[in-house]
Please model this.
Amino acid sequence: MIFSGLCAKAQETPVNTLINSLNSLRNKLPIEKLYLQTDKPYYNSGDTMRFKTYLLNADFLTPSTRSGLLYVELDDAANKMVKRIMVPVVSGVSWGDIALDEKEIPEGSYTLRAYTNWMRNFGEDYVFKKAVYISPISGSPTLVAANFKLDTIGGKNQVQASLRFTKLDKDPIRLKDMQLKVMNGKHNLFKDKASTGMDGTMQIDFDLADKQL
Model:
């Protein structure tokens, strides 16, 4: 019994040493986790993108006090930075806005990136990223009612979309030629031209690759 107890105690020592070493490393190199919210899921040229962020300690999800400055940028489809701003972080929270000037940030797919200098020590995987698409300026405000249905036809996954376009006063946008684009991040899933009917509606169907499900 005494011998067994001594063996158990001897086996615990390396484990305790490893735990203490990991805790010491965590204290010296704490990892920050960033969450960012935007005010809208998509934007038009000329809009202002407003955002709020929460910077937390990854281990316990408590507000991080290590970094006091946050970098927020927009990268184009070629991963070239077109806009970058810096905002202060107070008690793990920050907020700001980015003016989407048409000449500076034209229509297209972008990646919104946000990070602190400390986060860059751990590699690109720790940088917050979000795909954003910026549409061209529309002549007048448009409301879109959409209904999507996923079905399997001929062994292929197909999306059936019913769209209805109206003005702010609910008057249908009739016989309007439009260019439609469905995207998954920077990848085009569907692109075509179509026209609305007399009631402002439009029906489009397109195949969806299995990997997009």
User: Anything to note?
Assistant: DSSP finds one helix and 13 strands in the chain. The chain has two domains: 32-135, 143-212. Residues 21 and 27 are 10 Å apart (CA to CA). Residues 2-28 form the longest helix (27 residues).
